[in-house]
Design a protein that fits this description.
Elements: H1 3-6, H2 13-18, E1 25-29, H3 33-39, E2 45-48, H4 52-55, H5 67-79, E3 85-89, H6 99-113, E4 117-121, H7 127-135, E5 140-145, H8 151-154, H9 165-179, E6 183-187, H10 191-200, E7 205-208, E8 216-219, H11 221-224, H12 242-258
Parallel strand pairs: 1-2, 1-8, 2-3, 3-4, 4-5, 5-6, 6-7, 7-8
Helix pairs in contact: 3-5, 5-6, 6-7, 7-9, 9-10
The protein binds 3-methyl-2-oxobutanoic acid.
């Protein structure tokens, strides 16, 4: 079933879970109302990712993202969605300390943004927290493989799960699925491992730098539109080059203003005749 096309209202986490093995799930990140409006009819779920820190706020990593930022962007995205489900990322430091801390912050995110679910990073070590949240009414999407909030312990943004580490990531996937996550994001892992995980777990796998065989795909919207040009991960396909087009348009505007070609007659108001 294609959720986005068939649904008049937003799918629920269970609809996403039940889409395992069907038509691939479509997802993008969004941080603003207009972007959310653009993708609402095309995406099954939209993620208010903590990538917002790097993409919109110019932070060097996602570590500086706060609950307040996620709530503000979550509220903006919610205003632009009527058909796609919204998932909001739990920012670094808001859930790792204890299941209770995670519940308090996840409940706040859901209450203040009206998100359908939260996403958090981590595998086996977050299983207890995922079980705690799902038992208390908070649907959780897990995120394993390259987990950007752990960039300092992972030693950078490199591919995860090559060779011996593959078994650990497979164990992570099984642990989050057993704990009750309704889907799991697989970021930057080898294709064969992503395919193995997809066969091994009963919940949808959502790939980003993983495999075409995943149950769904997600990209950072500014990356695929060519708006975020600071760097381009190898797994990103640019479907547009809006950054280049935007800069050319701004240069043209600047030139026209300096040469008094803008505003033209149609952009100015005549005095009303009496
Ligand atoms: O924050 C984010 O944008 C993400 C995804 C790209 C999966 O977590």
């Amino acid at each position: 079933m294609m959720l986005a096309a068939s649904n008049k209202k937003a799918p629920l986490p269970d609809d996403i879970r039940n889409a395992k093995g069907g038509i691939p799930l479509v997802s993008l990140t969004a941080y603003t109302t207009p972007m959310a409006q653009m993708m609402d009819a095309h995406c099954d779920f939209v993620l208010v990712g903590d990538s917002v820190g790097m993409v919109l706020h110019g932070l060097p990593s996602t570590l500086g993202v706060t609950m307040e930022m996620m709530i503000m962007h979550g509220q903006a995205v919610a205003r632009g969605l009527s058909r796609a489900m919204m998932v909001v990322d739990m920012p670094f430091g808001s859930y790792e300390q204890s299941p209770q801390q995670a519940f308090e912050n996840a409940a706040r995110l859901m209450r203040e943004t009206r998100a359908g679910a939260v996403k958090l990073e981590g595998g086996c070590h977050m299983a207890e927290t995922i079980a705690f949240l799902t038992a208390r009414g908070i649907p959780v999407m897990a995120h394993i493989g390259l987990t950007p909030q752990s960039v300092n312990t992972l030693g950078g943004y490199k591919v995860q799960g090559r060779e011996a580490q593959a078994a650990l990531i497979l164990a992570d996937a099984k642990a989050v699925a057993d704990a009750g996550a309704f889907a799991v994001v697989l970021e930057k892992i080898p294709q064969t491992l992503a395919d193995r995980i997809t066969r091994a777990v009963a919940i949808p796998t959502i790939g980003i730098g993983a495999s075409v065989g995943c149950d769904g795909q997600i990209l950072v919207v500014d990356d695929m539109l060519g708006l975020f040009t600071a760097f381009k991960p190898g797994f990103v396909k640019r479907y547009a080059t809006l950054g280049i087009q935007g800069e050319a348009a701004i240069a043209c505007y600047a030139d026209e203003v300096r040469n008094r070609r803008f505003p033209a007659a149609e952009h100015m108001f005549a005095t009303k005749s009496p």
